Amino acid sequence: MQDIDNIAVVGGGVMGSGIGQVFLQNGYTVSIRDIDGDILDEAEERIESGNYGLDRAVEGGYLTEAEREDALDRLTLTTDLEEAVEDADLLIEAVTEDLSLKGRVFQEIDEATEEIPLYSNTSGFSVTSIANAVSDPSRVAVAHFFNPAPVMPLVEVVQSEQTDQEVVDLMEALCEEVGKEPIVIDDAPGEYGFVANRCYAAMREEAQKVVDEGVATKEQVDTAMEEGYNLPVGPFSLAGLGEEWD
After folding, report:
1. 31, 120, 121, 144: the active-site residue
2. What band does 242 get if pLDDT is binned at 50, 70 and 90?
3. Cβ pair 8, 142 in contact under 8 A
4. How many CB atoms lie within 10 A of CB 240?
């Protein structure tokens, strides 16, 4: 890991800022690029004082005030892709979950970088579909962090048949170094989602069928899954999911 010091993140939204914060808290220099300056302002605020930000880490005893200040000193926010990747040892893309947009972004990244490993934080698009946008697909893999990235341990590291093994090994080791739990899995072109989201989507679909058939209420389904399978929350309790399915 001694060769990795500078990390570029493309996309300054919730996931991009969260991923950037993970590496800032662990001593890395991070550049976050977004085309929208207002989004970068929000990213800075989220990293500094958001619900899972550095201020909360200090309050919880996970960081000292000096470590917080040092982390912020290692953060660069920019609308200039060339500036973001100038000294980058690797890059993580975290733009909106839109395949055509990711393709355009990776074409820009390909033109602005040489040789460094490239990772997408996509929650479900195949590595193959994203890697097609770059001239050397062997340097592309998925590193799917879960939200909120500063606290959720799982990272799905997804490889295609074209991915260089060193690119996979690097992200696996990096995740372990920053306290994450990586699982290395194979690409599944034609399917949306990897392990966690595909399994959870199947549970959500079946849960809705149970309710639609009048077998149980949403509250009873949640109780059954929470108490029967020790899930922290049932399928209808998760982040307003019940309202989305009404």
Report:
1. 144
2. very low
3. no
4. 9
